[in-house]
Amino acid sequence: MARREVLVEEHSNASIDNVFKLLATTSTWSNWTPFSKVERVVDSTLDDKNDLSNFDKVGSVKELTFLGLKSREKLISLTEPNEFVYTYLKGGFEKLLRNHRGVVTLSREDRGTYIKWEGFFDDRFVGSGLIVKALVTPFIKKCASGLARYAEKL
C-alpha cells in the first residue's frame, strides 16, 4: 500500500516557548484548533492512572471531537521546545489509514517561530490515503494557523 504525507508550514510572530506551551497543553486545544472538545483519556501506559497532571506527558491519550465525531490520539514524544509527536489511534479515519504518525516541529526564526506540521500514514486499501490527505490537509492547516495566531496573543 502507498505511504502518504501531509505537510503544512506556518509562521508565528510568537516565541517558540509560547508556541510549544500551547501545543503541549491539551486544555488549550479547543481555543486554537477546529476541535469543539478535547478531553484527556486515561491510558494504561501512565504510571498513576488517577494523576491528572500526567495527561500532557508522553503516553497520554486525548479524545478529540470535531462536528460530533470523536477520534483518539496518543502522545508519542515531546521534546521541549522543538517537537511534538503523536499517533492516531481510533476514529473515522481508522478504516482508511494505518501506521499514522504526526510530527509537529518548531524552529526559532529571527522574528518568531516556524511551525512544520507533518502527517505520515499508509493506505488501508488502494487509494484510501488520497481521501484522507484531501480531508486532513485543510484541517491541519487550520490547526497550524490557529496555533500560530493564538500564540501571538499570549
Order of helices and strands: EHHEEEEEEH
CATH superfamily: START domain
Radius of gyration: 15 Å
Uncertain regions spanning at least 5 consecutive residues = none
Helix content: 10-25%
Oligomer: single chain
**How many beta-strand runs?**
7
What is the distance, rounded to the nearest whole angstrom, between the alpha carbons of the first and last residues?
Answer: 43 Å
Percent range for β-strand residues: 35-45%
Q: Determine the number of helices (DSSP H or I, runs of at least 4 residues).
A: 3
Molecular shape: globular
Question: Judging by the overall fold, what is the CATH architecture?
Answer: 2-Layer Sandwich
Q: What name is given to the CATH topology?
A: Alpha-D-Glucose-1,6-Bisphosphate, Chain A, domain 4
Structural class: alpha+beta
Could you report the average pLDDT, rounded to the nearest whole number? 91
Overall number of domains: 1
Biggest beta-sheet profile: 7 strands, antiparallel
